[in-house]
Design a protein that fits this description.
- Among the domains are: 58 residues, no CATH class; 50 residues, no CATH class.
- It is 47% helix and 6% strand.
- A hairpin with a 6-residue loop joins strand 1 and strand 2.
Length: 174
Amino acid sequence: MHSTERGDHVGKNVSYRDILRHRANRMSQRQIASACGCARSTVQDVLKKADENGISWEDVAGLSESAAYELIRGRPQQSSEFAAIDYGRVRAEMDRDRTMTLTILWEEYAMLAARNRERAYGYPRFCERYADWCDEHDVAVTRKFTPGDLGEFDWALPVSSGNAQSTYTFCPAS
């Protein structure tokens, strides 16, 4: 899935692989647009680019979404104005500390970029690029979670119901 790039009207949730798969199944462009939840002009654009490059469903069937995008559109230009993301470090930090979040890692990335006078990707694009990297490297993004370990809540419980005014007591989480 790819976000809108300058000059592209291809939406964020458009699957190039699905568009080519539906065409291989002889669906019309209107049917493909309906099935993929995108505009017919988007389907036309993707199919035109695929045809220009001689790419069919068989060429992208075994590829990740980002690899299919690159095959059809060409490698997205990594603008030198954006700071590079060290995906290996992001993954290592996520593995090392189970309380680590992408938000914290993005903040560190953005601060480092600012220190180096580089432009940082925004948080949504950072997460999207990391997810694409994980797909390309066959990395599962899982988090070990022990219920009650990361979030503790105090609940107010009624003490008595004998009068119109309810009284509540707070019980600390155990």
